[in-house]
Design goal:
This protein has 421 residues and is α/β, with parallel strands linked by helices. The protein folds into two domains: 202 residues, Rossmann fold, CATH 3.40.50; 170 residues, Phosphofructokinase domain (Rossmann fold). It is built from twelve helices and 15 strands. The strands form four sheets. Strands 3-2-1-4-5-12-13 form a seven-stranded mixed beta sheet, sandwiched between helices. Strands 7-8-6-11 form a four-stranded parallel beta sheet, sandwiched between helices. Helix 8 packs across helix 9.
Length: 421
Amino acid sequence: MGKRNAFYAQSGGVTSVINASACAVIEACRANSDKIGTLYAGQNGILGALHEQLIDTSLESSAAISALKHSPGGAFGSCRYKMKNIHDSDAEYQRLIEVFKAHDIGYFFYNGGGDSADTCLKVSQISDQMGYQIQAIHIPKTIDNDLPLTDCSPGFGSVAKYVAVSTREASLDIASMCASSTKIFILEVMGRHAGWIAAAGGLAAEKAGDPPHIIIFPEIPFSREQFIAKVEQTVKDKGYCVVVASEGASYADGALISGSMHKDAFGHQQLGGVAPTLASMVKHSLGYKYHYALADYLQRSARHIASKTDVEQAYAVGRAAVEKALEGKRAIMVTIERNSGNEYSWSLGEAPLTEVANREKMMPRSFITEDGFGITQEARDYMQPLIMGEDYPPYKNGVPEYAQLKNCLIAKKLDTVFSEA
């Protein structure tokens, strides 16, 4: 069929290393310019394809693209947009094919989590149904570490490192003040259904009894009575108590400890507010002075303290996506495989999107201590290698210097416009 163009886009919540994957995709396409034409990046994820808002990455310098490897955020814009089921509405899919045909796009690289895997799978399916060949490859990304069939998800190692470092540093602050002031510190972290990020707070401890003293997981039903009792005993024993809590923590009946009634475009309930809720429980039950913090966007954008392992894996999966597409692979996700042996090492594999899309990988119960408030050695052995190594960005005038792209949109070829309604 000759040389065809490619499409790359970022989807869902971004990470501090998703641009490393973007860097790899662009560099790999350039290295294979005899097989792949122009790589277009979708402005704001799949919406860029639907609205025919395509960024010409060939206009960016090699230096600018290389700088993506150490830059946080989403260089081309991301989105939370869930494609409808093709049986319910084929308008979106007809539009995608129109845009792809107009710009001779034959390679589709979608960088995101579980919902993004679903989008990538649907694009591959319409390729067959509508008779237009597309090599659709999913590039894994999620700080939640909940993608199945991969040892870990690019983005998790860096947020885990940030949470572990922040927990240790804040713990030293509270320990300094607890005799006459604050005795409770609560750090709220992301994690809708899976407690991987909260678990990472446990890496702050060097020995038994070190903070964090309590970790609240979505996988463990929350008991106010057990929580308060644990806090009280910890303060008696240590003089203070440090808590890391997942935003998705809930009671045995499934009710969230805290959450709004609003939902995002993927249908997920808006979360947040666990830390102040827990702090209020402690204040009313025990009267202790407290402080709390919401890691929020800081945890997923902290490129200055990214895990070197995570950066390397994020780059590797992006490069492999292009290589696998050129091998004729489609409807797959690039996976990270943990090799056997005493020393941590990893390699790359692949998994069919039919077994990835809309599925979540939870924390194994064996990773959580019997009382439900900590991590086991098994969990530590799994997570520790993922936060190893530093990969500092260059600094200028005392702050990190990140990539600045032109992000030039190409001229539209279609007269019609797409309506999200």
